[in-house]
Amino acid sequence: MNPSDDNVKSKELDDSEELNPKKKSKGLKVFTTIALVIIIILLIVAIALSVLLIKGRNAALSGNTDVVVDVPDTFNVESNSNSVGSAYVYHDGKKYKYNDKVTTILFAGIDKRSYEHEEGVFGTAGQADCIFVMALDTVSGNYKLMAVSRDSMVDVDVLDINDVFYGTDKHQICLAYAYGDGKEKSAENLKRSISRLFFGIPVNSYFAFDLDVIPILNDQVGGVEVTVNEDLSKYDPALYEGATVTLDGNQAELFVRRRDIYGDSNQNNLRMERQKIFLQSFLKKTLKLTKEDFSTPLNMYNSCIDYTVTDVDASMIAYYTSIFLKTGFDSDKNMLKVPGETKKGERYAEYYVDTDEFFKIILDTYYTEVK
């Protein structure tokens, strides 16, 4: 074939396309349509996410109006009324105003295996063996994660399984969950006692989970690495003091739950330190996984929902996640224990909160300095 013939045919094709632009026009229309559909889908997703986050923010801050803080007598208040928006607290020459953009989240690990628990029996709905309270400033992203001793002595509403109120007695705070139905009513009762311990600060939301969920969450992040702070080798040879171990599910449950209830009054304090070590490592690993996959917290939520009583929904999970993805998580710096002293009671250990020291933490967490 003559090469010149190929050139002629190529030129004829080019001329044909120029003379008949319908093919180009059709291709352009298809491309434009696809691009438009993608833009619309992205816009819908962005709007849906924005609506979800707004809904989550509103839910997270519900109950933060007309708060009455029970300020200790050792701190000066401007007036007899210390509700939000009307009073200031003075301490060390500084003036403070309540910050209603801080949300409070209660995390409670419920032990329903104890020998005291009997399903459907008054006062035995399970005990809150592990209690952490997170105070999260939704504007700045600053937070504190406060460990509350299960032995903390506080006013507890005594309820039966039908939510009938019998009165208020001074008890270990772990028993607040025991009085109720073992579900929402028990969790709400624990919220009330936590709020009393926190000088009237409202608890905006809660997770009350059966401690059987620990192995599930541990394995979902691929195991939690800890350095063992006390000798647990009699329960598991790998858990000797000073060992660094990536816990499997069974080890994680042992590490978080185990204590000698017949030992000295410091047993729970030792266990709380282990719980803190576990939680620090778990949260750091969870945040790392969430940066790789935004759906990680929601997947965890779904995996343990059958073991959990909560008033937190998907919108709140998304909202909390969005804050921590922006600000990060430094558990070593922002994790602390509610200050106080353990004493031996008539039957069990009793933990008495140092109200003055604790209110200083409350000021630093829930108040902003006014210049």
Please state the CA-atom Rg, rounded to the nearest Å: 28 Å
Q: What series of H and E elements makes up the topology? A: HHEEEEEEEEHEHEEHHHEHHEEEHE
Query: Main sheet?
Result: 6 strands, mixed
Total DSSP helices: 10
Strand order of the largest sheet: 12-9-4-5-6-13
CATH fold call of the largest domain: Aminopeptidase
Class inferred from helices and paired strands: alpha+beta
Tally of structural domains: 2
CATH class of the largest domain: Alpha Beta
Instruction: Give the low-pLDDT segments.
Output: none
**Structure summary, number of beta strands:** 16
CATH homologous superfamily descriptor of the largest domain: LCP protein
Strand fraction = 15-25%
Estimate the mean pLDDT confidence.
83
Give the name of the CATH architecture of the largest domain: 3-Layer(aba) Sandwich
Give a short overview:
This protein has 371 residues and is of the alpha+beta class.
